[in-house]
DNA sequence: GATTTAAGGTCAGCCATGTTGACTTAATTA
DNA sequence: TAATTAAGTCAACATGGCTGACCTTAAATC
């Protein structure tokens, strides 16, 4: 743990350091998804359902098109998953009054409950990781990961302040 | 970008901050895998092949069992992917002289070439992200992501110094 | 008002990649 | 010699991506 780390200030980009980033991301994502996967399996859902539940919960009244932009999958792929969530009453849809072609998606009570169960495990993981470090490390984590995201989507990830502010 | 960030030192774990972590990880992983996926498609390979190529390249002479421990998938899942990579001569296997049940896996020249092409895109992404920040941010990123990984696997991700040191 | 565009949905089929379960072979170890 | 370990195999199944074609409804535009 105290190898080249002590050469703090100057930022040498050794291949080793870059590969370490790649591997951290791989392992973190692998473990980060494992617990929710187990919960989802109890309901006959998969990881794709989780993503839909998460982002609908996070962006109440999101439309299908907006959801597709976040997930970057095809309409057909989404519809299979979303259709099942609506059928099983985890997600509710209603027409947008101002443009009745659009369907606004929200979580039902049941959906919120599942969302919370799933997200709790992932938040606990982050809470632990944050607590093991400090505020500066967390800020560094944010800035580096934001830099990994394609520039056009970085704005999607910013802590929202006011309740009921909806999506960006 | 300068919201609650200025409350630097004390580490309040607001749900917003935890959800931001979740979302950063989702978007980062989504974009991080997109470029390699496109390269792999040209060869008729998928993301699973990439992971095998990457970790064999990273750990020359790794065994099948060790690879399974890293990937956390079943032997049957791996064998389909690994079998194709061996058949197409991206990966070479030979018996371990000291225990001939074990097969030691290495990249062929062709395999190394593909590995480099794939990894270059991901290293470039990290190089950009690292350069956009500073050494402290990078260190924070490392520590937080390491905290997301299950404790028993954290040791896997540490920059290796000496060439030919093999896996841990 | 008629046409074009946008949002959403649907059907069919394909492919990649995960799973379980059962079983085999070869080599090492107890 | 018997048990264990490493690897491989066959079959069947589920999830969740994809393409392509096509439809409906509502809004926007000509």
Task: Record the SSE blueprint.
Two copies of one chain form a homodimer.
Chain A: H1 15-42, H2 47-58, H3 64-71, H4 75-87, E1 91-96, E2 99-107, H5 109-132, H6 135-148
Antiparallel strand pairs in A: 1-2
Helix pairs in contact in A: 1-5, 2-4, 2-5
Chain A binds a DNA duplex (30 and 30 nucleotides) through residues 46-48, 63-65, 73-77, 79-81, 83, 99-103.
Please give a structural write-up.
Two copies of one chain form a homodimer. With 168 residues, chain A is mainly α. The first copy, chain A, has one domain (21-149): Arc Repressor Mutant, subunit A, CATH 1.10.10.10. Chain A has helices at residues 15-42, 47-58, 64-71, 75-87, 109-132, 135-148, and strands at residues 91-96, 99-107. Chain A is globular, with a radius of gyration of 19 Å. Residues 1-9 and 162-168 of chain A have low confidence and may be disordered. Chains A and B meet through helix 1, helix 2, helix 5 and helix 6 of A and helix 1, helix 2, helix 5 and helix 6 of B. The first copy, chain A, binds a DNA duplex (30 and 30 nucleotides) through residues 46-48, 63-65, 73-77, 79-81, 83, 99-103.
* CATH homologous superfamily designation of chain A: Winged helix-like DNA-binding domain superfamily/Winged helix DNA-binding domain
CATH classification class of chain A: Mainly Alpha
E-strand count of chain A: 2
Strand order of the largest sheet of chain A: 1-2
Rg of chain A, rounded, reads 19 Å
H and E string of chain A = HHHHEEHH
Oligomeric assembly: homodimer
Helix content bin of chain A: 55-70%
Described by strand count, sense and barrel closure, the largest sheet of chain A is:
2 strands, antiparallel
Tally of separate domains of chain A: 1
**What's the overall geometry of chain A?**
globular
């Amino acid at each position: 743990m105290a190898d080249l780390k002590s050469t703090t200030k100057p930022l040498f980009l050794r291949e080793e350091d870059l590969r370490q980033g790649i591997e951290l991301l791989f392992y973190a994502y692998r473990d980060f998804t494992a617990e929710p996967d187990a919960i989802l399996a109890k309901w006959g859902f998969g990881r794709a359902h989780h993503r839909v539940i998460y982002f609908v919960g996070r962006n109440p009244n999101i439309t299908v098109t907006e959801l597709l932009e976040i997930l970057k999958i095809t309409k057909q792929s989404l519809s299979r998953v979303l259709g099942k969530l609506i059928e099983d009453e985890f997600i509710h849809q209603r027409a947008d009054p101002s443009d009745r072609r659009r369907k606004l998606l929200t979580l039902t009570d049941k959906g919120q409950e599942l969302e919370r169960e799933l997200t709790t495990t992932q938040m606990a993981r982050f809470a632990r990781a944050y607590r093991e470090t400090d505020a500066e490390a967390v800020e560094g984590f944010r800035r580096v990961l934001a830099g990994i995201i394609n520039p056009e989507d970085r704005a999607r990830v910013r802590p929202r302040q006011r309740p009921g502010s909806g999506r960006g």
